[in-house]
Write a structure and sequence with these properties.
There is one protein chain. The chain is 12% helix and 44% strand. By secondary structure, it is mainly beta. It has one domain. The protein has a 5-stranded mixed sheet with strand order 2-3-4-5-6. Strand 3 and strand 4 form a beta hairpin. The structure holds zinc ion. Zinc ion binds next to loops.
């Protein structure tokens, strides 16, 4: 979801704005329900902004062994940078908008456990023969 930083664009370096947005869907991620993220944008220079994003969500995953569905709470709290002319580790500013969906999606994927178990001694898929 794009957030307009037009007000900050006209502000002095070091100026900050706070935003709260609701994210209801993200590619490849199975969300239990929409969640809110808190965003603090700090103007570093005229064309570079630090973006601090925090939020809590629940992601639907499957047990790695028995494939039982599980709800996995995830807390994000990270900084990223948006720039008019971004390098590989930065995100582009489109006109006066920043779109945080993809940085948030990548952070959630980074934090998602890949070998989640429903219980420590999960015995896996039970065969019925
Ligand atoms: Zn299991």
């Amino acid at each position: 979801m794009p957030i307009s930083i037009l007000g900050l664009n006209r502000s002095h370096d070091g100026a900050q704005e706070h935003y709260e947005v609701e994210i209801s869907s993200l590619d490849d991620i199975d969300l239990l329900k929409p969640f809110k993220v808190q965003i603090t944008v700090t103007k570093l220079r005229h064309d570079i902004y630090d973006v601090h994003i925090t939020g809590d969500m629940v992601v639907k995953l499957d047990c790695h062994r028995c494939l039982k569905p599980l709800d996995s709470p995830i807390h994000i709290d990270f900084h990223t940078v948006f720039a008019d002319e971004p390098d590989e580790e930065e995100w582009p500013i489109a006109k006066n908008d920043i779109d945080i969906d993809e940085p948030v999606r990548q952070e959630i994927l980074f934090l998602t456990p890949t070998q989640l178990l429903c219980q420590l001694d999960c015995s896996g898929i039970q065969s019925k023969n």
